[in-house]
Design a protein that fits this description.
The protein is built from 5 helices and 13 strands. By secondary structure, the protein is α+β, with helices and mostly antiparallel strands. It has a 6-stranded antiparallel beta sheet with strand order 1-13-3-11-6-5. The termini are far apart.
C-alpha cells in the first residue's frame, strides 16, 4: 500500500485494525479469549502479552487480582508499585525482605511500601523462582555486556524501561526504586555470593491491597549468565475481586503482617475507601 501521501498513510493505518501480534494488549480486557478459571469476562480489567524487552503499566484498584505468567520459560518480570494517590510511597523491596525475615518470596508473602503498608500480597505462585536482592538491569551494565541498553535497542535495560512506564504517570528517574524480579531466581550461597538459579515458567498471582500504579519491565535478569540477551513473552491478566478483610488468613498470618495490614486499613479508612 502506498504511504507516500497523507491519504495513503491513513488507509494503511486503518488497514491494521483487527491485526494481532504475539505481544499486545486486548481492549477491552473482557474480550480476552481465555479468562482465568472462575473469572467472568466482564470482571477482566487488564489483558496483555508483553514481549521480551517490553514494558507495561496500569493503575489498579484495591482488590484487583493480577496474574503474571511466564509463557515460554524465559520471561523476567521486574516489578515496581507506587501508591496511586501519593506516588512518593512505593514498593520497598528491602523492607519487604527485612520485615518478613525472608529474602525468598513465595505465596503468602506481602509486598510492603516504605510507609510500612501492604501494597500487594502474593496469593498464588507456581514458579518459586524470584529475586528480591539484585533489582533490574541498567543502561551502563547492558551496554557493556550486550552492546546496547537503550529502551528501543535489542537489549533494553530494565531501569530505562521503567523510566518510560513511569513517565506516563508524571513520574521520572528518581521514582525508579529497586525492583522485584519474578520468574528468575537468585540465592545466596554459603560464601555470601549471589547465585543465579534461573527459572522455567509458571505463574504468580498478586492481590492489590491498596490503589497502585503497577509497572512491569520484561527484560533479562542482570545475573543471567547467558551471553546473548534472552527474554521471552510475559502474559498479564487482571480482574476485579474482593478486597482483603481482617478475616482473611493472610491478614493474621504473622505479627508483622498484622501490623502492616492495620497500617494499610488506617490509611484507606481515612481516605474513605476501606
Amino acid at each position: 500500500m502506498n504511504t507516500a501521501t497523507t491519504y495513503g498513510a491513513r488507509d494503511h493505518a486503518r488497514a491494521q485494525e483487527g491485526a494481532t501480534a504475539e505481544a499486545m494488549p486486548v481492549l477491552p480486557a473482557s474480550r480476552w479469549p481465555d479468562p482465568p478459571e472462575g473469572v467472568a469476562p466482564e470482571s477482566m480489567v487488564w489483558a496483555e502479552t508483553v514481549a521480551g524487552g517490553g514494558y507495561t503499566h496500569k493503575v489498579l484498584a484495591r482488590g484487583t487480582h493480577v496474574r503474571l505468567t511466564d509463557l515460554h520459560g524465559d520471561a523476567c518480570a521486574h516489578l515496581l508499585l507506587h501508591n496511586t494517590f501519593e506516588p512518593c510511597e512505593r514498593l520497598n523491596v528491602a523492607d519487604t525482605v527485612k520485615v518478613q525475615w525472608n529474602a525468598y518470596l513465595k505465596s503468602g508473602n506481602l509486598l510492603l511500601s516504605d510507609q510500612a503498608r501492604v501494597l500487594a500480597s502474593i496469593v498464588a505462585d507456581s514458579s518459586g523462582n524470584h529475586d528480591a536482592l539484585c533489582s533490574t538491569s541498567t543502561l551502563a551494565a547492558n551496554t557493556e555486556r550486550y552492546g546496547a541498553g537503550a529502551p528501543h535497542s535489542d537489549s533494553p535495560a530494565g531501569r530505562e524501561l521503567f523510566k518510560l512506564a513511569l513517565a506516563k504517570h508524571g513520574l521520572d528517574a528518581r521514582d525508579v526504586a529497586p525492583s522485584l524480579a519474578l520468574f528468575k531466581g537468585v540465592r545466596v550461597n554459603t560464601n555470601g555470593d549471589l547465585e543465579f538459579t534461573g527459572g522455567a515458567g509458571g505463574a504468580v498471582t498478586l492481590r492489590i491491597e491498596m490503589p497502585v500504579i503497577m509497572s512491569i519491565a520484561n527484560t533479562a535478569h542482570p545475573l543471567d549468565p547467558r551471553p546473548a540477551f534472552t527474554c521471552s513473552t510475559l502474559e498479564v491478566l487482571a480482574w476485579r475481586d474482593a478486597a482483603t478483610s481482617p478475616e482473611d488468613p493472610l491478614w493474621m498470618a504473622s505479627p508483622e503482617g498484622r501490623r502492616a495490614f492495620a497500617n494499610t486499613a488506617d490509611y484507606l479508612t481515612a481516605r474513605g475507601i476501606a
